């Protein structure tokens, strides 16, 4: 069930009208949401109906005992068990074939591969037990609330990665209701997400990006470079579009999810980029991985831990050396940027902001080549084509240039350009909102007549 599909919105509408009349009875409301979560998973594979409840039950039980345990050794054993269970799920159901190949045993088609949502589920699930272990959260007494929070369906495919304890608090809050303004903002976000995905991201992918990355040898260096820039825009509008739809869907059910993007290509350095890009993952890697890595806090370890963190973050995206290289590049970039800032202090910012932003974007786009290319050899070929200096752009259509220009304008525009229309939409009467959504549906039907491609991050 794809989020930009009509099936998803019929599903969301049904859950919306079923949930709110029953929400006055907390157990009934949670039951509706839990049914929606598990139904969403089973639309992809029935196996999830066994895996997700079992894993969630294990974490709920561990959280219960963590809340009672006092001894440091006992608490460490419990949280380690939770980590082993969740990372074990990742190892078996997503990375087994990759690890077998590393060990020299070609796995062929690994039969037990269920990648959908597994990475996001496991990272989200671990926030519950680790937060309790660190005493940043208390265990919930409601088994139903925990099952609902850890498998919340808008976040299933691609986040945002949400702290389970935060979602549980919202679900257990008495007297929950949906304010008209919050519902309108949710609808606005969903509309924004659909525009990003269907009018920009899919167009860029179908009309240039996919062809350039699949057959770079057929294109000039300038066309390959344009394809890389187009992919940077495609990935941003695709993933931020998903996040908008997920956050908007949650808002219609009275729940608040964390922001996931903040104009990432305005970053003045690579560390700033990761404070703006996939914010929920960046925060997870920082809070649960970087700060947990062993080693003496000497002059070297913080920089080495940055590289390790990002390499593991790259591997989290998929069982491929391409992702490892992408993570290592970003880790090295962050380490160099942090070292330079620590060494030079304020003098590190001696260059203009626009220049630092330009250099950061070039580095990020270079790394995207290894993130998107189907193999390391293909990525290297693309780099060679770009370096060849051939500058014909006959294969880039006028429509591509137009959509890329609109995408750049949309990304770099002041936030008020979005905030003001959003508040106008919120204050508009229901028939005005309906007219806007109808016009959006017509525009999408006209431009995206071939249907929606899967969200890029659902592969991870």
In short:
Helix 9 (180-214) runs parallel beside helix 19 (430-447) and helix 10 packs across helix 16. The protein has helices spanning 6-22, 26-42, 48-68, 72-93, 96-102, 118-133, 143-150, 164-172, 180-214, 221-252, 270-276, 279-289, 301-317, 321-344, 353-372, 376-387, 398-412, 416-427, 430-447. The relative contact order is 0.11.
Mind explaining what this structure looks like?
70% of the residues lie in helices and 0% in strands. The protein has 460 residues and is mainly alpha-helical. The chain has two domains: 6-175, no CATH class; 181-409, no CATH class. The longest helix has 35 residues, at 180-214.
Q: State the major sheet.
A: none
Radius of gyration: 23 Å
Q: What is the count of distinct domains? A: 2
> What class do helices, strands and sheet pairing give?
mainly alpha
- The 3D shape can be described as globular
How much β-strand is present in the residues? under 5%
Uncertain regions: pLDDT < 50 for 5+ in a row?
none
The overall average pLDDT, rounded, is 88
**Number of helices, where a helix is a run of at least 4 consecutive DSSP H or I residues:** 19
Number of strands: 0
End-to-end Cα distance: 16 Å
Reading the helices and strands in chain order gives: HHHHHHHHHHHHHHHHHHH
Specify the helix fraction band. Answer: 55-70%
């Amino acid at each position: 069930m794809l989020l930009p599909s009509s099936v998803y919105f019929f599903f969301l509408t049904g859950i919306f009208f079923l949930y709110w009349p029953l929400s006055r009875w907390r157990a009934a409301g949670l039951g509706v949401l839990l049914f929606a979560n598990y139904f969403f998973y089973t639309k992809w594979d029935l196996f999830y109906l066994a895996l997700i409840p079992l894993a969630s039950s294990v974490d709920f039980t561990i959280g219960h005992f963590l809340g009672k345990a006092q001894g440091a050794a006992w608490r460490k054993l419990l949280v380690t068990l939770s980590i082993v269970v969740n990372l074990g799920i990742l190892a078996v159901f997503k990375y087994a074939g990759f690890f077998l190949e590393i060990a020299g045993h070609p796995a062929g088609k690994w039969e037990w591969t269920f990648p959908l949502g597994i990475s996001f589920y496991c990272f989200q699930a671990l926030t519950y037990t680790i937060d309790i272990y660190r005493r940043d959260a208390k265990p919930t007494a409601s088994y139903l609330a925990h099952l609902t929070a850890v498998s919340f369906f808008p976040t299933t495919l691609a986040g945002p990665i949400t702290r389970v304890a935060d979602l549980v608090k919202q679900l257990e809050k008495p007297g929950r209701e949906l304010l008209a303004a919050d519902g309108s903002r949710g609808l606005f976000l969903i509309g924004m997400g659909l525009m990003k995905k269907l009018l920009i991201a899919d167009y860029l992918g179908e009309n240039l990006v996919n062809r350039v990355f699949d057959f770079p040898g057929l294109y000039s260096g300038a066309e390959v470079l344009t394809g890389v820039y187009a992919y940077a825009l495609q990935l941003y509008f695709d993933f931020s579009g998903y996040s908008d739809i997920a956050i908007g869907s949650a808002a219609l059910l009275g729940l608040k999810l964390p922001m996931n993007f903040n104009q990432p290509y305005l970053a003045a350095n690579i560390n700033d980029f990761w404070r703006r890009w996939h914010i929920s993952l960046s925060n997870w890697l920082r809070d649960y991985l970087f700060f947990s890595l062993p080693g003496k806090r000497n002059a070297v370890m913080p920089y080495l831990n940055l590289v390790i963190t990002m390499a593991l973050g790259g591997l989290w995206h998929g069982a491929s050396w391409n992702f490892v290289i992408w993570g290592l590049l970003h880790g090295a970039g962050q380490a160099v940027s942090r070292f330079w800032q620590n060494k030079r202090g304020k003098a590190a910012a001696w260059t203009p902001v626009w220049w630092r932003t330009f250099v950061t974007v070039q580095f990020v786009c270079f790394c995207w080549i290894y993130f998107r290319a189907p193999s390391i050899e293909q990525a290297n070929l693309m780099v060679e084509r770009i370096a060849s200096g051939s500058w014909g752009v006959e294969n880039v259509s006028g429509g591509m240039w137009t959509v890329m220009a609109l995408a750049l304008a949309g990304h770099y525009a002041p936030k008020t350009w979005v905030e003001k229309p959003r508040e106008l939409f919120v204050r508009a009467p229901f028939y005005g909102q309906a007219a806007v959504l109808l016009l959006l549906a017509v525009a999408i039907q006209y431009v995206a007549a071939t249907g929606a491609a899967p969200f890029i991050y659902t592969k991870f």
